[in-house]
Specification:
Layout: H1 2-6, H2 9-25, E1 36-41, H3 57-75, E2 80-83, H4 93-102, E3 107-114, E4 124-129, H5 135-145, H6 154-157, H7 180-198, E5 202-208, H8 211-215, E6 220-227, H9 231-238, H10 240-262, H11 288-291, H12 304-309, E7 318-323, E8 326-331, E9 336-345, E10 362-367, E11 370-378, H13 381-391, E12 399-404, E13 407-409, H14 411-418
Parallel strand pairs: 1-2, 1-3, 3-6, 4-5
Antiparallel strand pairs: 4-6, 7-8, 9-11, 9-12, 10-11, 12-13
């Protein structure tokens, strides 16, 4: 990437400014109506994406993309769905962005599946455009951006951008967007619905430098539905009931987002009961660098080399004490609580507001700059499920979430900890 290294500084900053201005100025802030949605099925044609033991990523991406589009079309006559592909064909990354921009879409949704060298990696994560701070986010961005290397004349189409070169990503360092806030809000809704309905591991909303998100001039997200590189999760992703659940989850997140933008109250679609079966997959182990898991541990040792030799992984239920080359794992008290999330808002509303008077034990927490309101504080999932029926009489889109020592976790993780 000698070209980037030798680029005149003034020219470089001018290019970055123009690219940034493009993202801000073409269509302005998020509109007050959502009438056009572009849904992008990742990969396709000669680009299979992640290849597992049983399937190719491009196949799952397309099935769920078409189903999400159908759900939106069937329930919103005023919304036009535009696909970047509707069959197994190759579509260049830059053309996917062009499709969204030329149609002046109000929302861009890119659907993918994940992979990792660590075969135990599992879970759902939703991305917005940004410079990912973790090595994992950077690796995922490189993996998705590498699709451009399969295209003809990719050097010309991407101005010699090399997805494998760290220097190339400097062009993203000045990225700002008028759509980042709305993208994050929508991403948080997608992530919440997917986690609540599938009980898969929650890998949260993250930022990463995806070319396709960088080039679209509208609120946009990229969803990684799960890890095909994990044999059990691949089987889970191939289940038709799970694919239907994921499509409905994304649709319901769209409904919630559209209601927020337009001030409407369109109801959610019911989620098939069969999907509430627990996926038989292990929660991903993660390092401190990726998600601050080490904050869950207290480590003491008489020998510093013992600590360096000990590989600490995520296990929120343990305290690791190293002494005389022996690691003793002792349990830490977990305070598991189930609550019913029934309302979200960009504004910080007092829990005593009269609009919440029909419910009890109102709590709130901030997640990705969105305030989320819950009712109840239950010790068991059954208690929460019984209360959910009453809450739904007032808030039809309510659902159950879980906490461990006031840290939000997935329902699956809460049940595992309670064992």
């Amino acid at each position: 990437m000698q070209k980037y290294k030798n680029m005149n500084i003034k020219t470089f900053f001018l290019v970055c400014f123009l690219l940034t201005f493009f993202n801000i100025a073409v269509f302005g802030q998020a509109k007050d109506k959502i009438t056009k949605v572009v849904i992008d099925a990742g990969h396709g044609g000669n680009d299979p994406g992640t290849v597992g033991k049983l399937c190719k990523e491009k196949e799952i991406n397309l099935k769920i993309t078409l189903r999400v589009g159908q759900l939106i079309s069937d329930n919103f006559e005023e919304v036009t769905i535009i696909y970047t592909r509707q069959k197994d064909e190759a579509v260049e990354l830059f053309k996917r962005a062009e499709i969204a921009n030329k149609n002046k879409a109000d929302l861009f949704i890119s659907i993918h599946c994940n992979s990792a060298e660590n075969k135990s990696a599992t879970g759902v994560e939703t991305f917005v455009m940004g410079l990912g701070k973790t090595e994992e986010s950077k690796a995922i961005a490189k993996k998705e951006n590498a699709a451009m290397l399969l295209e003809k004349d990719y050097q010309t189409n991407y101005s010699d951008f090399d997805p494998n070169s760290p220097e190339a990503y400097i062009v993203f360092s000045l990225y700002t967007s008028a759509y980042l806030n709305w993208s994050t809000i929508f991403a948080s809704k997608v992530q919440s619905h997917l986690i609540a309905n599938t009980n898969m591991a929650d890998r949260n909303v993250r930022q990463a430098a995806f070319w396709v998100l960088y080039k679209v001039a509208m609120p946009s997200i990229l969803i990684e539905l799960g890890f095909i590189s994990n044999a059990e999760e691949e089987k889970y992703l191939l289940r038709e009931d799970i694919q239907e659940t994921m499509a409905i989850s994304i649709f319901n997140a769209f409904v919630e987002y559209k209601n927020l933008i337009e001030g409407t109250s369109k109801p959610f679609l019911p989620v098939p009961q069969t999907i509430h079966q627990e996926p038989k997959i292990e929660l991903q182990e993660a390092t401190e660098k990726e998600n601050n898991a080490v904050s869950q541990f207290q480590i003491t040792s008489k020998n510093e080399t013992d600590i360096k030799a000990l590989e600490v992984t995520k296990t929120d239920t343990t305290e690791i004490i190293v002494s005389n080359n022996t690691a003793l794992i002792q349990p830490i008290t977990n305070i598991i609580r189930f609550r019913i999330q029934f309302f979200t808002s960009k504004d910080n509303i007092n829990t005593s507001d009269k609009k919440f008077s029909v419910l009890s034990e109102i709590k709130k927490h901030n997640e990705n700059n969105v305030w989320k309101y819950t009712s109840g504080d239950f010790k068991t999932l059954i208690e929460a499920q019984n209360s959910l029926k009453e809450v739904k009489k007032h808030y039809s889109d309510a659902f159950i979430i879980a906490f461990n020592n006031e840290k939000k976790i997935s329902i699956t993780e809460a049940q595992e900890l309670m064992k």
